[in-house]
Amino acid sequence: MRSRRWVVYAKPPFAGPKAVLAYLSRYTHRVAISNRRLLAFNEKGVTFRYKDYRRDTAHQQQVMTLATDEFIRRFMLHVLPRGFHRIRHYGLLASSSRKASLARVRELLNVISTPAPEVPEAEPATPPPCPCCGGPMVVIQILPRWCQPRGPPRATDPAGGSP
C-alpha cells in the first residue's frame, strides 16, 4: 500500500463539519467495544449495549443481540491491519512531538501564550491522626488508584530452599 500513490476522494458532509468531528471523535481514542458493554454470550449470540446517536439523549442506550459470526465480523471491521497505527499516534498531538507542534501552531497563528499563574508553595499538610493510638500517622507510600497493592516479598531459606 505504501508504494501506491493514493488519491483521497472527499465530498462535503451532509450535516456539516461538526457532525463529522462528532463521528470521528467516537472512534479515534477507543477500542471497538469495551467489556462493560458486553451483557451476555450464549447460543443465541452476543448481547451488548450500544448508543443510537439518532435518538434523543433519554433513549440513546439500546441493547442488541447478534449472531456470534456477525458480531465477530463487525468487530473485525474495527481492527487495524498489521503495520497500521491508530489515528491518535499521528498529527499535531502525537506524543513524540506534541510540545514542538503546539508551539509551532501557536507561532503560526500569532497566539500570545499566557504565562502560567504562579501557585504559592503549599505548606506541608499535617498527616491525619492514627485511628488506633491517635498519634501522627506516618505515610509510607501512596498507591495509585489503578494499582493493586502487593505484599512483601516472601523470605527464602538461606540454604536455597523456599519456606
UniProtKB/TrEMBL annotation:
InterPro entries named among the record's database cross-references: Transposase_32 (IPR007069)
Bilayer-crossing regions: none
Domain of life, source organism: Bacteria
Domain Transposase IS801/IS1294: start-end pairs: 3-98
One Gene Ontology molecular-function label: transposase activity
A family per Pfam: Y2_Tnp
GO annotation, biological process: DNA transposition
Matches recorded under PANTHER family: ISSOD25 TRANSPOSASE TNPA_ISSOD25 (PTHR37023:SF1), TRANSPOSASE (PTHR37023)
Protein name (Swiss-Prot/TrEMBL): Transposase
Native source organism of the sequence: Komagataeibacter europaeus
